[in-house]
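Minutes, project check-in
Item: structure for the 263-residue chain
Input as provided by the requester:
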Amino acid sequence: MRTDLKEVAPAISRLLSIAAEFSENNKYWSHLKNNEDFRFVHRIPATDRHKVEALYGVGRDMAIYMQDALASINYDFSKYPTVTSVVERFEGTWVHGNYDTKIPDIAAEICNRYAVELWSVNEMISLFKKQERLLAAVRVTLNMLKCSALYKMENGMAIMKEQSPNIHISAVTGSSININSDGSTARIHQVYNESRIFEELITAIKSQGIDPEIAKALIENVQMLAASHASGTFKDAYKNFIQNVSAHITVFTPFLPTLASLL
């Protein structure tokens, strides 16, 4: 791994691992199209056939782009000279939803309409959605990079340095804590709410008994929200979060007042 990115090695390692997943997906897309029953897609009238073929076209394009874009982080210094360039590289791309997310559902609906049952299409739908989960993992990881000291240093942002002063905690009442440190006193409000809210959201999702794939997507959205809170970009991320989870907003309703207080 690049030594200049050693400080953020865990996040870069994750992105490289995701690149390897997209590389394997790319091979599977080819297999499904050329070695399975996808050739029988011609049974669907030409007026609608392209909507099913788009599943393959867009899905494989996604895999090809992502495998190259992520893998080259480790060796293309001209494209990725800094951590900031890694984050910015993926703005406006597949990672942030620059594609029609309805493609798998449309393909399934068209096949059902014409009673064309193709194993390859079902596999492609599953593979497409798997790649969407990988994109969510990339978004979470990029937010982790934005929280890093290296990213903040590159962008002239304040970096909180760790200190080890003598701290005495007393008078813990509700969500307020009196802290005395080296002769100074500070009063902190809502410490526990702010630090635990994201953990509580994830616990709430897991307790709902909803579809595992939906639960995983919701948890990834919470993880992105948590990363944005740490990086100081919570306001914009909160808007995206509400849009992304709108279909399951009842899960989060009890927590919305606390989330709003973080804006």
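Outcome recorded: Confidence is low (pLDDT under 50) at residues 162-179, 184-194.
No further action items on this chain.
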